[in-house]
Amino acid sequence: MDWHILAQQLVNGLTLGSIYGLIAIGYTMVYGIVGMINFAHGDVYMVSAYLTAICLAVLFSFGIDSLPFALLATLATTMLITAAYGWTIERVAYRPLRGAPRLAPLISAIGMSLVLQNGVQLSQGAKTQGVPSLIPATLRFGEGDDFVQITLVQLLIVVVSLTSMAALTWLIQRTSLGRQCRATQQDRRMAAILGINTDRIISTVFVIGAAMAAIAGVLVTLNYGSFDFYIGFVTGIKAFTAAVLGGIGSLPGAMLGGLILGLSEALFSGMVNTDYKDVFAFSLLVLVLIFRPTGLLGKPEVEKV
Amino acid sequence: MNQPSFSRCLLAMALASGLSLSSLANAQDTIKIGVAGPMTGGYATFGEQFWRGASQAAEDINAAGGVDGKQIELVKGDDACEPKQAVAVANRLLDQDKVAAVVGHFCSSSTIPASEVYADAGVLMITPGSTNPQVTERGLPTVFRMCGRDDQQGPLAADFIVNELKAKKIAVVHDKDTYGQGIADAMRARLKELNADDRVVLYEGLTRGEKDFNALVTKIKAADADTVYFGGLYNEAGPLLRQLREQGLKVNFLSGDGSLDPAIVTTAGGPQFVEGAYMTSVREARNIASSQDVVKKMKEAGFDPAGFTLYAYAALEAIAASMNGAKTGDGMKLAEWLKAHTVPTVLGPKTWDAKGDLNETSFSLFVWGPDGNYTEMQK
Questions:
Q1: Residue A7, in any domain of the structure
Q2: Residue A129: its chain B contacts at CB < 8 A?
Q3: Is ipTM > 0.95 here?
Q4: Using CA atoms, how far apart are residues B33 and B67, in angstroms rounded to an integer?
Q5: What domain range is B271 assigned to?
Q6: Min Cα–Cα distance to chain A from B278, Å
Q7: Which string of b and e fits B173-188 if b means at least 16 CB within 10 Å?
Q8: Is residue B262 predicted with pLDDT exceeding 90?
Q9: What is the total count of domains within chain B?
Q10: What pLDDT score does B8 carry?
Q11: Which of A279, B116, B210, B223 has its CA 20 to 30 A from that of B240?
């Protein structure tokens, strides 16, 4: 395989993996703090794709022609509204079940996922929606037909993902809010005794996860241009896989899992066969879980007495 | 309170008998016919074409006196192009709505399992758009098509690739679904006949529902293909086309009737990505002399009868004609009648062979222009 083809596949995988990673953060943070899988998370991402298109349409209809401003305003609005979705979902579907057996919130999550999918289908229609290609710029390295290219949007995806990841790590490791999150994760009752409002912390985690999904939603909409009410399912499954691969509950694990999944899909698809790229990705997951049941960066769960 | 009170029982009985009486009354002045297809989901535009076409046909037939003096009442069935849901819809149409015949379904992977249900019940089914050969190859007597087969459609594309485009390296991509892989294989079978199968440099399947085909596109680039054939639907064809163009591949792109829909401009993110793509599909029905009145009527009502709309219209016409001709609601007898008679439809006179395939079918080649519209290519 030529160097430029290999490099192009790495670019493809890196972009895809960054998106998986961003969405995986939502799964992993929620699991870390309340020990449940938020199956509605993929659909929160789907909602953010619709919000992106609506925001852009509204901004352009007001005659705003500065693209960077429109994108930033769209990103901010989408993150805000999607975060509100995350908060509401936690409030409505999960908080009332806080003391219930573990299966109850799981079922509630699946229900929430159906509510979001069908709600969007009813309000926005079943048709595939799209956003025209806004940033056609690409960077090309190499000569003639042997070039590697990265579009500006792809570059944006990788940079924004890594920056968000770094910002989030700083938030969790260095700030008072992060300390409270970690305390709640380690022992919710003890944290509450020490004066932490654990309900508020759990809400915050849902809000952060949804905001990350919103970033992914904006970037994906810019990159691929089309979406429907069902996109949350496929992407959600992949992001969840990424979270488990990296070690569910671990923040850097989510990003690592996402990148490994994206790269392995692109490389396997490029070198072997596209038909079986998912088989390969999931075989990888099985292998990792056999040798490291908690994922690559996950900590083994200590049975609390 | 464990025992239901007497009065409540009475009420329930009254309600139940009232309901059954009214449905009996309904059954006498109307004939129910199911219209099944993807009414929701990613392929809802095809479902809408089915529904609009069949609705217009029902309106026109009812205005002309109905079927055997009875009015046609359409019942919508939504399969979302999901095989499991298609079977459920088929059962619902038969058991709950008691339909006498069905116009549908669209995706071959839905039509095939649903047709088994209709065939078991002996109910006539005419699909306006399922082109996979297996739809009529299983010997089910009550299954008919209003369109051609992929082993006619695929070869048209193959001939064009070899004779007109003079392709040297062909990449064949499909969506691993009954329709998509079927038409891609039919295209390849014709390439073999033309001694051009060694020009296929890549044959792979992508996953329906995904949006990122960049890895596959890079692979097509590495294989140095000059022509890409895609067997699948517009939801995947759009992003695939866009990513091909974004990675700078100036390849010829061909696909089948599942991709020929204005919605591909949306899924690709703009007409500039779709421009120049070739697609085969059922003949453009809006240009046929016999369809002009209907086309005009539907356009005045605000709906452009594109794609399969008029095929659905014709399917309902055929059902009505067989019911008028055979003077029965029995699916087996209707099927026998259809196979023995010529039916005048909006698409012209139609006859069927013993399998339920049309005796004469024609596919055409279409090309997308820079404005996001497609035109039929003249031969």
A1: no
A2: 266
A3: no
A4: 11
A5: 151-282+364-376
A6: 21
A7: bbbbbbbbbbbbbbbb
A8: no
A9: 2
A10: 52
A11: A279
Whether chain B has a CB inside 8 Å of the CB on A8: the answer is yes
Distance in angstroms (rounded) separating the CA atoms of residues B225 and A100:
58
Between the two ends of chain A, the Cα-to-Cα distance in Å is 55
Alpha-carbon separation of residue A30 from A41, A187, B215 (angstroms): 10, 15, 31
- The reported pLDDT for the residue numbered A301 is 65
State the pLDDT confidence band at B10, using cuts at 50, 70 and 90: very low
Closest approach of A7 to chain B, Cα-based (Å): 10
Q: Does B133 lie in the same domain as B195? A: no
| Identity of the residue numbered A290 | I
Tens digits of residue pLDDT in A153-196: 999 999 999 999 999 999 999 999 999 999 999 899 999 999 99
Count Cβ atoms within 10 A of the Cβ of residue B216 and give its class: 0-12 exposed, 13-18 middle, 19 or more buried: buried
User: Between B215, B263, B266, which is nearest A270 by CB?
Assistant: B215
Those residues with Cβ within 8 angstroms of residue B26's Cβ, 6 or more apart along the chain or in another chain: B73
Which residues does chain B have within 8 Å of residue A226's beta carbon, measured at their own beta carbons?
Answer: 211, 235, 238-239, 266-269
Put simply, the answer to whether B266 touches A233 (Cβ < 8 Å) is no
CATH code where residue A56 lies: 1.10.3470
Alpha-carbon span A224 to A247, nearest angstrom: 29
Same domain, B158 and B88: no
Residue B261 has pLDDT above 90, yes or no: no
